Amino acid sequence: MVQARLLLAITLHARGEAMEAADMMHAAVDLAIEIGLNLRSFAVYHGQGNPWVEESLRRTWWELYVMDGYLAALHKRPFFKSNTVQSEVLLPCEEVVYSSAGYLPQPPSLEQFDMRLFTDEAIQFSSFAYRIEAARILARVLAVAGTQNEDQVQVVDNALAGWIHNLPRTKVDVVNVYNMVDEILFQGHMIIQCATIYLHLPRSDLLNTLPVTANIVCAERGRHMSPASTQHSHSVKATNASKELANLAAVRVPVQKHTPFFVCGLVLGAIVQLSACSVNAGSEQHRDRITLIIGLLKSLSSTWAISGHVLLEVKKVASEVLHTSTTQQGGPTYDSGMSVQNNNSWLSMLNMVETQEFHGLMHLEPIYPGSS
């Protein structure tokens, strides 16, 4: 039932039914904690001596943990429930090992993973483990989202940078030794870059370059969460993170392989790139990244309904921003040249998980019995 609710939550999100997805995720997490899925003993006790069943149960908890973190970030919550309980579950193995149904190695613990840089013990950790660590860092970003303490922000920023620098050589690139995209590692990189934007964008001056900045990605017009002297640093870090998201979008892989949550990552990247494009008067590099993001959203829309709706709104504002940035050279920012009425809809879409505008927009048949 936990697995079913988890999959349904992902599907509801991909259909654009944000509130229903959140409710279903909450139900999955509550049930998982109730039955003790977060305890190390659960997989052993219920695995019936089958190592693949045990691995499946471990993966269920950690997948739930990562997805719970995704939705918490999209809903701009300061925490997610699966991160408020002790996670004793051993870490999953590599996807290729699990899917081959061959010998499963002894799973490492979270404690072993955390101490990997300080011991001589040579343990190979899976991409799943690094994805879990990315979600744990995202939890720390959410916890400091509203703080004005730059020291606390810097500590979390160090953790974000450390995730990338401490990857083993085989995990630096999302394309593995078999010349295939490691989708689990891909998601880890995506989480880190999105978390970087969540941390730095509200503290930067980028949002003031957009036509309307109300109700968008944890920020409001004129509301700065850092001293003016540090805004440029935050802007640079948010812009670099959006560039890395664009680089992930450039990886050639069938879009069906990507999580539907990548749509939200692309939207974050688009917001920052559009802001940077406004500042730099339509710089070609920003325009090219925006074009890439729009193209991938178009491709993803054939699989995930949510992408199609976001695509229309991103294209609309991109057209206006790019047109204005090439015709107005009097300064880096602009405001009243756009119609607030025309821009409210796309800003609401970009902030999609806080609105109910998606409700009823999909016009799809119910995907589970009794739905309405």
Write the layout of secondary structure elements.
Elements: H1 2-14, H2 18-35, H3 40-46, H4 51-74, H5 95-100, H6 110-114, H7 127-143, H8 150-165, H9 183-200, H10 228-249, H11 262-279, H12 284-300, H13 305-327, H14 340-350
Helix pairs in contact: 1-2, 1-4, 2-4, 3-4, 4-7, 7-8, 7-9, 8-9, 9-10, 9-11, 10-11, 11-12, 11-13, 12-13, 13-14
- Per DSSP, the total helix count is 14
Number of domains: 1
Q: What percentage of amino acids are in beta strands? A: under 5%
Please summarize the sheet with the most strands.
none
Calculate the terminal CA-CA distance, rounded to whole Å.
21 Å
Q: Gyration radius, to the nearest Å?
A: 21 Å
Order of secondary-structure elements: HHHHHHHHHHHHHH
Class derived from helix and strand content: mainly alpha
The coarse overall form would be globular
Domain Xylanolytic transcriptional activator regulatory: 2-114
GO molecular function: DNA binding; zinc ion binding
Protein name: Xylanolytic transcriptional activator regulatory domain-containing protein
InterPro entries: XnlR_reg_dom (IPR007219)
Structure description:
α9 packs antiparallel against α10, α10 crosses α11 and α12 packs antiparallel against α13. The protein has one domain. The C terminus is likely disordered. The protein is 58% helix and 0% strand. The radius of gyration is 21 Å and the shape is globular. The chain is an all-alpha fold and 372 residues long.
